[in-house]
Each structure stands twice: as structure tokens, then as C-alpha cells.
Amino acid sequence: NNINEELKQKILDLKKQRNAIILAHYYQRAELQEIADYIGDSFGLAKQAAETDAKVILFCGVHFMGESAKILSPDKTVLIPDERAGCPMADMVDADGLRALKAKHPNAKVVAYVNTSAEVKAETDICCTSSNAVKVIQSIDADEIIWVPDKNLGHYVSQFTDKKIILWEGYCNTHDNIRAQDIIDMKAKHPEAPVVVHPECRPEVVELADHVASTAGILKFCRETDSQEFIIGTEMGIEYMLKKESPNKQFHFASKLLICPNMKVNNLKKAHRALETLEPKIEVDAEIATRAKKSLERMLEVQ
Ligand code: 13P
Ligand code: SF4
Predict the structure, then answer these.
(1) Where does [4Fe-4S] cluster bind (predicted)?
(2) Mean pLDDT within 9-31
(3) Which of 152, 155, 239, 291 yields a CA-CA distance of 20 to 30 A from 7?
(4) Does the interface ipTM go beyond 0.95?
């Protein structure tokens, strides 16, 4: 509508004035993906944040993503449209709890999914995202690995290594909503459609999938696979890009509950206000940031 078009123009003008870049995750509302300079999965967004020359980063995503951007580019102003955009899974592990687990397993190396707070990252050896988790685990020189916080992603990567993985009991409420029966029902309705899911899904759901990948990986698979329809097991915000990249294909979401409410608290109005007021800013304590940065940088070095 007209109001949105006006807001978008204002945002683009402010972006120039502020020397800002707009980054957006694939789960963000379409109106935010439309104004983004770069749309990506967690890994792609972290890389962009580390490499950009812009002075200001408007991060349309959840808090841990903005925090990683600030850690990787501490001299830049990092804004988030709404600081209440959190990730319940990231909140399932805290630094004290992780320290206690490390004390029980002194020889273990610690891998943090990027869906963690800066305080937790500071306690870890290396980060990973869903797109590089297998490579990261294979790069680790230790027989025991503590894996925080996603037990489902941890279970998935454990199939690719002989190392002992000690799982934290975290999970994503949104992906957890998909049950194996949902996939079985969808396959009965759409027998020709390959099933593509995110590794945050339950093991029994992952087992039924034809392909398991990060959001960017799901997009790539649907773009490159010669099928007219797909069953999708991830958050619905990805539909915007699926449709944009493959307008003639059909995408059936495995459950009606695949919405991450946290991702949706950001909107165009709040993005505009953030660029106008340069608030809310993401700040990370300097000592924590230094330690967390090592863990993120190790991840960025894994090929
Ligand atoms: P991706 O890294 O695959 O984009 O996933 C981020 C996320 O929060 C998944 O729920
Ligand atoms: Fe966190 Fe799940 Fe939302 Fe991703 S989809 S931000 S893991 S709650």
C-alpha cells in the first residue's frame, strides 16, 4: 500500500544519509526483505556484517544475530528494529549453566550454535550455524564435544562424526512444532514433492526428509531441483524468497504452526524509527565481546 511505499522511500533515504546497510534474515516479514541490501541465513549474515564498509548496520533479525554483527564489527553502530526480537532457544542456555557442564567435562571442546548470547559464546571454542555445523564438528581436535543449545541440530551432526557429543537440552519452539505425522500426511497429499527441512527439526522429522539444510540451503535445493512442488519444514517467512526465486513452483509448509513470533516483531515502521533515531543499539560488553569474537572468527575460518 501507499503508506508502506512512502516508508520504504524514507528508509532508503535515511540509509544513504546514515551510510547504513540493511541486513535481513529469510524469516523476516516480506516488507523488510524488500528493503534489505542483503538477505541471508545466519552464516551469510554474519559474514556480511564482518565484511561491510558501512558505518551503521540495521539488522532485521533476532537479537543474537545483531549481537554477532556487533561482536564482529565493534566499531559499527548495530541497530535492531525491535530489541524484544529474541530467540527462545538462545535463552535456553546461560553462561553459568554452561560453565557447570564444562567443569564436569574438562577435556571437551565446546561448540556454540550461533543461536546463543554473547556471554555463552564467550565460554565456547567455536561457533557454528546450521549451514556449517558438520564441517565445524569435523574440524575439532577433541574426542568429546559439548554442544549448545540445540539438541536437534546436535543429534543431526552426530551422524557425521565418531566424536562423543554431549547435548544441551535446548530446541527451537517453532521447528519443534513439526511432527513426523505432519510429514507423513503431507507426503500422502503431495507424493511427488521432495521434503526439505531445517536441521532444527526433531530427529524423526529429519529422518523422513529428502534434504536437510539451513535456510539458504533450502532455497538452493528448491531452486536447483527439478520438481514442481516441495514440502517445506522451516519457518514460513522463507516463502517470500522461495516464490521470488521459483515463481512457478509450489511450496507446501509441513505445519500451519511454522511461525517464529520473535522474528515477526520487527516491521517496516520500527526499521524506519531505528534508522531515524539510531536506537535501539546493540551493545556487548568489551571483555565478553573479545572472547566471543574468537569463537565466531574460528567458525568463519572453517572452510
Ligand atoms: P539459518 O542459519 O538456517 O538461517 O537458521 C536460523 C534460525 O534461527 C533457524 O531457526
Ligand atoms: Fe530461534 Fe527458532 Fe525463531 Fe530461529 S525460528 S529465531 S531458532 S525461535
Answers:
(1) 87, 172, 260
(2) 97
(3) 239
(4) yes
